[in-house]
Design a protein that fits this description.
Blueprint (H helix, E strand, L loop, with lengths): L5 E10 L2 E11 L4 E5 L6 H8 L7 E6 L2 E2 L5 H4 L2 E4 L11 H11 L7 H7 L15 H12 L6 E5 L7 H17 L2 E6 L2 H7 L2 E6 L2 E6 L1 H8 L3 E8 L2 E8 L5 H9 L4 E7 L3 H9 L5
Length: 286
């Protein structure tokens, strides 16, 4: 069996008396995208900071590529890519100069700078100073920088925050491409659509604890109620009827409504990740 790229056992961290991460355990395989889905303050960013060596765990253990994250091992840092919410770009350098300089820190002599900028939609602005970039463009720069060393593990903290829908879709595609290349991806987000679209598995994290961990499909099957929404014309208005698929008379009722001349649409409904998160925690993702 393939060795997990990320292995976490009982990981803990506290800020003074506030326990931000409360003994969580999970793993991420090479080529897998694990979505950490939870509201702000749930412990997502703190977890990434521990796994990338920015802060030292207060308990438990974690290994990335078989290396203890508390060891401050340069061999580990050379094999990971990181994109944080905080922007720490060189504003007086151009986009290309930023990436070339960052590549030099890894000892990369011929970085594929222009190709990486193309992937995030910034190739035409390669020679422009980053100080002239919008918030969304700077976020794309942060993402492009995390790809520069072709990392074996990617840590992405809210990677599409501040981006428009078209650019967000483009960035999600690049993340999928990195996973297809073989990188393990740990993605933190409070965006249920992003988590659903990208993740092979999803971990719901709330108040420092993982409350569920499975594929999106399994979570929906386990916690959701399967139903069908039928819309019918009712005089000059439209009425809706919701039928539970598991109800004993569901088939007969659906057949009856499907044969109605007033039928407009029939749609299956399933629980959203937001619905499931609220059911498990009593709170929303925002």
């Amino acid at each position: 069996m393939t060795q997990p790229a990320i292995m976490v056992q009982g990981l803990r961290y506290s800020y003074g008396d506030l326990e931000a991460v409360k003994g969580i355990s999970f793993d991420v395989q090479p080529g897998e995208i694990l979505g950490f889905l939870g509201p702000n303050g749930a412990g997502k960013s703190t977890t990434i900071k521990m796994l990338t060596g920015q802060i030292t765990p207060k308990g438990g253990s974690a290994q990335v590529l078989g290396i203890d994250v508390a060891s401050d091992n340069p061999n580990l840092q050379a094999q990971i890519g990181v994109c944080f919410e905080e922007k720490n770009l060189y504003l007086n350098m151009s986009a290309k100069e930023n990436l070339d300089f960052y590549a030099s820190l890894f000892g990369i002599k011929n970085p594929e700078t222009m190709e990486i900028l193309r992937r995030v939609g910034l190739a035409e602005r390669a020679k422009d100073r980053v100080s002239t970039f919008s918030k969304g463009m700077r976020q794309r720069m942060m993402i492009s920088r995390s790809f520069i060393n072709k990392p074996k593990v990617l840590f992405l903290d809210e990677p599409t925050d501040g981006l428009d829908p078209v650019t967000s879709a483009q960035i999600r595609q690049t993340i999928k491409e990195e996973a297809e290349r073989g990188a393990a991806v740990l993605l933190t987000t409070h965006d249920m659509f992003e988590a659903d679209e990208l993740s092979d598995r999803i971990a719901f994290i709330n108040q420092g604890e993982i409350v569920a961990l499975d594929t999106a499909e399994n979570l929906k099957l386990k916690y959701g109620k399967r139903s069908v929404k039928i819309r019918l014309r009712d005089g000059e208005s439209v009425r809706e009827e919701h039928i539970g698929i598991d109800d004993p008379d569901a088939s007969a009722r659906m057949a009856e409504l499907a044969a109605s001349p007033n039928l407009l649409t029939i749609h299956t409904e399933e629980a959203t990740l937001e619905n499931i998160f609220i059911e498990l925690t009593g709170r929303g993702l925002e």
